[in-house]
Amino acid sequence: MNKYTKYLTLKHSWSGINCLTLIELIYKEQLNKSFFKVWQRAEREDGTTNVARKWFKEYTTQIINEIKNWNKISLPEITEYDIIVFRSKRGIINHFGMYIGNNQFIHIMDGCYATISELNDEWREQIYSVCRYKNEMV
Length: 138
Description:
Elements: H1 19-31, H2 53-66, E1 70-73, E2 83-87, E3 93-101, E4 104-107, E5 115-118, H3 121-124, E6 127-133
Antiparallel strand pairs: 1-6, 2-3, 2-6, 3-4, 4-5
């Protein structure tokens, strides 16, 4: 059984599992590591979290540029657990996936279940960057 199969039962939810929190979950369960706590930026004073689509689109580019514990790498260097950052046609970061090997990545899209997709030309055209987590884990 593929070690990523169990994640394919997870359904997208802005307040639960989305493309970023799916990767966070995999890092925590498989590597016992946390790559960053993106939702800290979305916490409100009352303790609830604002994880609406508007928040995601407004802050993901800023967050990516501020993360100090990632190294940007070139696509030919990609290995398992590298994070793929996708952009829209307008250049706005809009999706994340995690490379799992064999030219495949795991991700979850709005309203869907997590899935494993081939990193084909259509997906490659949308790549903003590929990031590898540094050894100094948080």
